Amino acid sequence: MIGTNALLGVLLVSLGMVLTPGPNMMYLVSRSITQGRRAGVISLAGVAVGFLAYLTAANLGLSVVFVAVPPLYLAVKLAGAAYLLRLAWQALRPGGVSAFAPRELAPDSPRRLFTMGLLTNLLNPKIAVLYLSLIPQFIDVRAGHVLLQGFLLGGAQIGVSLAVNLLIVCAAGTIAAFLGRRPGWLRAQRYLMGTVLGGLAVKLATENAPAVV
Fold first, then answer.
1. What is the 3-class SS of 17-79, one letter each residue?
2. Rounded percentage of the chain residues whose pLDDT exceeds 90
3. DSSP 8-class letter at 100
4. Is 36 left (phi over 0), alpha (psi -120 to 50) or beta?
5. How many other C-beta atoms can be found within 10 angstroms of the C-beta atom of residue 12?
6. Terminal-residue alpha carbon distance, the chain
7. Which of helix, strand or coil describes residue 99?
8. 23-35 and 70-92 helices cross at what angle (nearest 10)?
């Protein structure tokens, strides 16, 4: 039903997405280091539900609401941009710390970990736009079962994202220990991550609402 080229195309794009630093990675790393791998996995479950929510909305045509109601898209994207700016400021401010720097934080309950992972993903409307613009390019209408193709291809994207993020969660402590022995690297990582997040926030805030193609 799904061609090999279509599946490989989605997998490659998905891999490029998940390897780009963003709020999901920042939140998962910080929680995995401060509260352990179990907390990171619970947070990742929330991220996964966020992906499923946007995938379902996109396949059912609900994400077109972002196009039909520009104020709604604007509100969500500004909320997402504000969240990214907050993360960037935490990294770049004087006395700021890297996501990989061990520090004392009050432990969150499993429910809060899950909720924060979910909100971190839902506050990025570009995920819905991604499904709306990317997945249809790989669907073969001649093969039929268009809705099923959409869910299967979206599921492939989610699978790649979860697999890579799970590796990040499991390796966060090791990476933190490696960087902790190299203060210069830790500082450089903090500035790089803060700059990237700040750039993403500005880009998200200044983008126009997407058009349906």
1. HHCCCCHHHHHHHHHHHHHCHHHHHHHHHHHHHHHHHHHHHHHCCHHHHHHHCHHHHHHHHHH
2. 12
3. T
4. left
5. 11
6. 23
7. coil
8. 50
Q: What dihedral angle (degrees, nearest 10) is formed by the CA atoms of 34, 197, 212, 49?
A: 0
What is the rounded distance in angstroms from the CA atom of residue 6 to the CA atom of residue 3? 5
Tell me which H or E stretch contains 190. Answer: helix 183-206
Which amino acid makes up residue 131?
Answer: Y
Identify the burial level of 183 via C-beta atoms within 10 angstroms of its C-beta, where 0-12 means exposed, 13-18 middle and 19 or more buried. exposed
Give the residue carrying structure tokens 């630093």. Answer: 21
The encoded tokens of residue 82 equal 């504000």
pLDDT, tens digit, for every residue of 15-38? Answer: 766 776 677 877 888 788 778 888
| pLDDT per residue as tens digits for the range 52-72 | 988 888 777 755 665 667 777
Report how far Cα 86 is from the mean position of its chain's Cα atoms: 16
